[in-house]
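Hey, resending since the last one bounced:
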Amino acid sequence: MDQLPPWAAVVLAGGSATRLGGAAKPQLRVGGRTMLQAVLDAVRGATTRVVVGPPQDVPADVLLTREDPPGGGPVAALRAGLAVVDTDVVAVLAGDLPFVTAALVTDLRRRLTRDGVLVVDDTGRDQLLLGVWRTAALRTAVAAPGAPRALHRAVSPLEVDRHRPPVTPGEVPPWLDCDTPEELARAREVAERSAG
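The structure tokens again:
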């Protein structure tokens, strides 16, 4: 198998988590670890791992930066994260994906042939914060003067492939995030059942 090129990872770990009572969502625990730690474990092979968001606990080898303005949304966060990336390939993930795996990230890296490749969920929705990109193309898209604040608009000019990873019946999809107390409770229940 051909050696895949070096890559970096940018994890967006900001947002106000208003539906979770304003808690620091990436720091909430699912299955014995924080959701942020689950994501950072999935991108452990990256040459550089960058977390964009407010001050929070991250491993010593992970860079922590903040978008400008703070709370400015995913485009501003990506701009900040990409500023410290020096590889041609970058994985971009949300910080609240407790079931994402290193195998999926590797699969996406293998599938990168154009500007980007991202996961599509079982409803056909693009998961913009679960993909792998050509750094230069993504940097241009989010740094353009007057770049839209909405990420889907910012990346719409890019040539993007979509990947629908298979999910075994009864298993949790890797795109499951935790935006509400109900989703968080479900994720914790699934993680507990899997560990038992």
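The domain at 7-195 is CATH 3.90.550.10 (Spore Coat Polysaccharide Biosynthesis Protein SpsA; Chain A).

Sorry for the duplicate.
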